[in-house]
Amino acid sequence: MSWIADPLSDPIMRRAALELILLGVAGGVLGCWLVLYELAYGAESLAHALFPGLVAAALLGLPLVVGGAAGIVAAGLAVAVAARAPAIGRDNATAVVVTTLLGAGVLLALSQESPPGLGELLFGDVLGVTDGDLALAGGLALALVVALRLLHGRLLAVGFDRTTARSIGASPLVADAALLVLLALAILVGVQGLGNLLVVAVLIGPAATGRQLARRIAPMMAWAVGAAIVAGLGGLLLSYHAGTAAGASVALVAVALWAAAWASRRAIVSRTP
Amino acid sequence: MSADVLRAHRLTGGYRTPPARPAIEELDFALPAGVRVGLLGPNGGGKTSLFRAILGELPVVDGTIEVAGRCGVVPQTERSRLDVPVSALDVALMGTLSRLPWWRHPSRADRRAAREALARVGLGEHADRTFGELSGGQRQRVLVARALVQDAGVLLLDEPFTGLDEPSARRLEALFADLAGEGRTLIIATHEVGQAMDWDLVLCVNRVQVAFGVPEEVLTRDALERTYGGHVVDLPGGGRVVPPHHDCG
Q1: CA distance linking residue A97 with residue B115, whole number of Å
Q2: Residues A200-208: what's their mean pLDDT?
């Protein structure tokens, strides 16, 4: 047990573990809706596109949340404008805008004039989370769980059949907007610990794992939260013992869990006559 | 027959943006409670637009449409996503959304009503099965149950017999007769002219209203040809068939 107890005797590791558990709850629950609404690409794009905002906030000495929020709004507007160009389409417009913004952010972060350490914004620094970060993650987890519980019936109705949702009292516009706002919040908070490139790991991987293992939404969410927490803590231990980057280790474990869930489901299906 | 539950008076609906024409024009009919109405028309001929006008989702350019009570839509089951992990009961419970404020969840009584609605359509024992794993006919009946949970007096059914085998179609037919017997009005968009012969009323629409009335008077060769643009085939034995792919262009 010292394999687990030793790392957790360190207050920095305990703090990181708590951050990953809170993000796991938020990401696992929200991620299920992102997977069902096929919004994984949007989630990843949004996370990458706010990068220049984070860098600008770091350079100006502002809180990262402020820079990230400004970055998300700017990215959303840029996608909306680019998608209006004839014969481009929303996915292509998103790809163009996101690549441009991520590239601009990286240029800014890694230029010689920039203070060192901005590169961490890309990969996160879960070992450096503050009490403020923990409070934010806790607030986020609570807000997401409450909001998604309230919206559950309507999100389900729109996800089930968007063409007739309005006739039964569920607006697709409201459902989409609510999911995007919650996604933006989750990315803003999650990016502090897991970084710009890896925050998607707790949003999509665990939910995809849950989808392999469950036949209803509620158990899917339970599996997803469990997988996200296992990925978070497992990744943290892996990074401690193997000396690997924490965020990347979390992402790797999340993907490994999905692969295991997929393989076990295939094995069960192939054994069923 | 009792008082009218749905009345369209010179109803013209759609978007005014020129050069587009209104999707439906000058529709004029009244439906009493407790009837099955066959809605015939070519693809793109305004059947869906009429449904949307009844639901208040299509702008009314001219005329009026009045509906007494709630409307429930029964879409084609292919429109719904069969990979969404929901049970038949979950789908039936969606019928409570329009009655509940957004912060309220279905109560125990709502769940009981949803189970009763599933039993009403003959699926009481399948309430906990995954919707996507049910047969086409069973899925169609789950969607009817959803409309019953909505307490819909008017049911708008979009080609409910498409893709069903003979026993499933007969079962659905019997259910529709029962529901009409309870005083509900069913508007059934269909291509099956022969089926519509057995119903109470028929409305033929090809953007404009071609004919409306009891089947024996309405379903003439002339009316069907004007409805479908001259693609009606007479069958030996007296039936008439509208070939598939009869887009009106």
Answers
A1: 49
A2: 93
The rounded percent of chain A whose pLDDT value lies above 70 is 99
Whether A215 has its CB under 8 Å from any CB of chain B: the answer is yes
As given in the structure block, the two tokens for residue A82 are 């680019």
CA A151, A157, A160, A164 dihedral sign is negative
State the DSSP H helix or E strand holding residue A241, giving kind and residue range, or none if neither.
helix A217-242
Tokens of A33: 């809706």
Written in H, E and C, the secondary structure of A27-77 is HHHHHHHHHHCCCHHHHHHHHHHCHHHHHHHHHHCCCHHHHHHHHHHHHHH
B101 touches chain A (CB under 8 A): no
How large is the C-alpha radius of gyration of chain B? 18
Residue of A nearest to B155 (CA): A167
Q: Is residue B204 over pLDDT 90? A: yes
- Rounded to 5°, the CA angle A14-A17-A21 comes to 140
Q: CB of A178 within 8 Å of any CB in chain B? A: no
Average pLDDT across chain B, whole number: 89
pLDDT of residue B246: 46
Contact between chains at A157 and B87 (C-beta distance less than 8 A): no
Q: What whole-number distance in Å separates Cα of residue B74 and Cα of residue B84?
A: 18
Task: Please say whether the beta carbons of A27 and A148 come within 8 A.
Answer: no
Q: B170 CB near a chain A CB, below 8 Å?
A: no
Distance from CA of B93 to the nearest CA of A (A): 9
Give the torsion through C-alpha atoms of A140, A141, A143, A146, to 10 deg.
Answer: 170
Smallest Cα distance from B19 to chain A, Å: 22
Angle at A227 between CA A224 and CA A228, to 5 degrees: 85
CA distance A141 to A127: 19
The answer to whether the Cα torsion of A22, A42, A256, B133 is positive or negative is: positive
